[in-house]
Design brief:
about 90 residues, 4 helices, about 60% helix
């Protein structure tokens, strides 16, 4: 499968999870997204891409009921500017 198609499919799964009306549906869509993220991570690892660990971390989340799985939230060194700075 084409890597770009997997990126697209992952984004669709994330949007469907965010728009889910029930917790179970949201978990199911996030699980779908995590499976796709795992495939992306495997393909990127084979290509020696630097982003592979990020995708693998997204895949490892599985069906956990977490906030929207934005890639930025999982990137090393990323900090939410809305959050208060830690002292």
């Amino acid at each position: 499968m084409d890597l770009n198609q997997l990126y697209f499919d992952h984004q669709i799964a994330v949007m469907r999870a965010d728009g889910a009306l029930s917790r179970q549906c949201r978990r199911d869509r996030r699980f779908d997204a995590s499976l796709i993220a795992g495939r992306i991570g495997c393909m990127q690892r084979a290509l020696r891409a630097g982003a592979a660990p990020v995708w693998e971390a997204l895949a490892a989340q599985g069906a956990a009921d977490l906030p929207s799985p934005s890639l930025a939230l999982h990137a090393p060194g990323w900090r939410d500017e809305r959050a208060p700075a830690s002292k």
